[in-house]
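Collaborator request, handled under Task 6.
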Amino acid sequence: MGFESIVYGEHPIRPVDQAGQGVHADGIPFFQDTLIAMARISALTTTIKFGGGVFLIPQHNPVQFAKELASLDFYSGGRLLVGAGIGWSQVECELLGGQWGRRWQQTRETVEIMKLLWTQETTTYEGEIYTVPPVQLYPKPVNPLGPPVLLGVRPGEKGFARIVSYADGWLPALVSEEDLAHGPEIIADGRRQISALAVEAGREPADFQISVIVRGPQIDGDLGPAREVNRAMVSELVDAGADRVLISLATITNEEDAKRELDRIAESVL
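Structure tokens returned to the collaborator:
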């Protein structure tokens, strides 16, 4: 169909007694296991990039997760994208090993450990949460620097500082009517701030990716915005500084619906 990439969200379980939030206003829908989905995709495709949008980092052991992601990248020929976020469900986070009150510190240390394991022959690490004795990890990812890690953070100096400090790019989500109306401005301003912080940190601004998620016309039973995502909208976001535009789909449970929706998006956008 001509798509460059596909990403999947991650929610291992559905808390029953916790109210929903954001696009999951009715509670978390049932998701496939994202890592298993990635393994199936890598085996059945040859060129399309794929990844988590986002992986919920505090819910993963950093060493095991580094191994799983490196293996996916290695066997797919370097096609993995690592969207990284913290999630919004305290129940889910803590049930799966996260520390809710320290989830951003946990995310930082996990990403730092994974990048060391991907790029060094022998790795050690001493953090506030994790300590790693001398260990080695193989296979390594295809890219010597590892797959790109894109942080899903809200626009703002604190989030952008996190990106420049330990990640490789930004994964914003335009989900509200206001976000969609001002999308190019949000992306352009984010690109300017990330570039300025990168220069201050001695990093190359061009090395930072921006992959923006745009909420489609329907997701998880909510009608959402009235307008379709089309080629003009995507072009405006790219002109504003986005490297990739990801269009969210409604919850799909069968192949026929999937093909119809993908055909529709391909026709309107590509």
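The cover message to the collaborator said: "The CA atoms of residues 251 and 257 lie 10 Å apart. The two ends are 9 Å apart (CA to CA). Please let us know whether this matches your experimental observations."
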